UniProtKB/TrEMBL annotation:
InterPro entries: Acyl_CoA_acyltransferase, GNAT_dom. Residues 2-155 form the N-acetyltransferase domain. This is Ribosomal protein S18 acetylase RimI-like enzyme.
Length: 155
């Protein structure tokens, strides 16, 4: 059974490792340096945990932390949220945890009318999950480097 709990500073070190490991294959593929979630610093993760405009949840399966999901409110007064990061332990990917986590987060944020996220072009499994959940490609691309282009999605 999957549970979700608010991330705390006590979870920082464990989740820093979980996130880095989950994103290492994409870092190797896209070579996106400091932009990559695999290179998040302890200070950056601490800032996310303490962000009063954000929600950072632990994804727990059978009492083990297997991932995290982080989103924050956009400061434009239009009830919009940006789904910044979701990571699942490599050995647990493909089990539906990402989809369940996104659904849970959206259900928690009842007043949010618009959700935004970015996904690497060519990451078809991720794109499939987002589209299955109702996210639509906006047509906007963000070029990070010669290997990585992000696609902007909206729901």
């Amino acid at each position: 059974m999957v549970k979700f709990e608010k991330m705390t500073i006590n979870d920082l070190k464990e989740h820093l490792v979980l996130q880095r490991r989950a994103f290492l294959p994409l870092l190797a593929k896209y070579q996106d340096g400091n932009f990559s979630p695999a290179n998040i610093t302890e200070a950056e993760m601490k800032k996310r945990i303490e962000n009063s405009q954000g929600i950072y949840l632990k994804i727990i399966l059978d009492s083990l932390d297997v991932g995290g999901i982080y989103a924050y409110t956009l400061n434009n007064g239009r009830n919009e949220m940006y789904l910044s990061t979701i990571y699942i332990s490599n050995n647990m990917q493909g089990c539906g945890l990402a989809q369940e986590s996104i659904k849970h987060l959206e259900e928690m944020c009842i007043g949010i009318k618009t959700w935004w996220l970015e996904v690497p072009e060519g990451e078809n499994k991720n794109i499939h999950i987002y589209e299955k959940l109702g996210y639509q490609y906006t047509g906007k691309k963000i070029i990070i480097n010669e290997k990585l282009t992000l696609l902007l999605y909206k729901k």
